[in-house]
Amino acid sequence: xxxxxxxxxxxxxxxxxxxxxxxxxxxxxxxxxxxxxxxxxxxxxxxxxxxxxxxxxxxxxxxxxxxxxxxxxxxxxxxxxxxxxxxxxxxxxxxxxxxxxxxxxxxxxxxxxxxxxxxxxxxxxxxxxxxxxxxxxxxxxxxxxxxxxxxxxxxxxxxxxxxxxxxxxxxxxxxxxxxxxxxxxxxxxxxxxxxxxxxxxxxxxxxxxxxxxxxxxxxxxxxxxxxxxxxxxxxxxxxxxxxxxxxxxxxxxxxxxxxxxxxxxxxxxxxxxxxxxxxxxxxxxxxxxxxxxxxxxxxxxxxxxxxxxxxxxxxxxxxxxxxxxxxxxxxxxxxxxxxxxxxxxxxxxxxxxxxxxxxxxxxxxxxxxxxxxxxxxxxxxxxxxxxxxxxxxxxxxxxxxxxxxxxxxxxxxxxxxxxxxxxxxxxxxxxxxxxxxxxxxxxxxxxxxxxxxxxxxxxxxxxxxxxxxxxxxxxxx
Length: 477
Hints:
About 30% of the residues lie in helices and about 20% in strands. It is α+β, with helices and mostly antiparallel strands. The strands form 3 sheets. Strands 1, 2, 3, 4, 5, 6, 7, 8, 9, 10 and 13 form an 11-stranded mixed beta sheet that branches.
């Protein structure tokens, strides 16, 4: 990749931002040829219209008769440092966040479905596709994911993955990493982001973490850094206690106060509710909530927590508003940050309510990575390659999305291909992939090839695949 390409005004902004990001990740690779091979494979991912395997990506590059061994060694051998690769990506996100603004991340676990019972890291896990009232099991690998949520604009944001580490259970097939629980992997990722902020000279910047109910454990709250604010979903029957008052008389100091009502019992209270309007994806939604506390969770006497109760809603939907829809109440535990000898919540109620809505973007990223971008489809089954191939695919997804965010923001995407649809307010990920393909096909060094054939079709299948491949010239770029 040539650096002078970024100075060429004829190159689209999307490609210019992508090339700038890719060059910033050079330090994660030991050799230049390994770096180039990795970048070529990334461009092959853009044009892999079938499965996103290594073979399909190489066919998209036109390498039909080449030796593919070195490409598979990218994942089977230590050809790149995953932690350095994620660190380079993290440093690039800092340019989009001011130091006086909170750096918001979300943590969540996801599963990659597998069919083999001998593949490293696989185990029997709860199947998410089964009915909630009768959960089944399936064979899968479990990974923990931490994603950066850029600053919200008009109620829009998107989850950009920072790291993707294995969280294999203890009964999984042995792999090249130690088994972890979900909360352990999530806490490790939060600490990693906090350390990277400190290394970048942003020790005073607030780190906000959004998590689901799997992270609401005693160990998570105990080991959470004091300078990290967490908003974690909790159970409706969570047992909380008051903070004990000042010590009176002699004796051992009490750790807990009286038991307070459970989160579900607060819903029955008529007084004390507040209402705020929150902008979510271009709409203004009125939310009814109450913030109680600080309280103490049993087993964590040294960390005050606030209870956030969001009331349920019932509304009519449909064209004629004949269908009734309902949203159940939700409960969250909010941790403050250390301020002198006390604790405080540095965000306003509206900011916390807005971030709770945006955590759904992590689920959108999971769906797009697995079903749209083919994360987990690479046929790498070694103890190291089965993890490294997944992590590399997630990194490629993140770089492509971050380049789109830098080039277009959230709203300045390309025009829709047809006249029958005016386009949505925020560009979709399918629009992003189409934008990359259109931009690459328009460049002189990456021109699409489509040659007609006569009655005598070539008999060599591999030559025919390379002849009609739209990305045949990418290997020379």
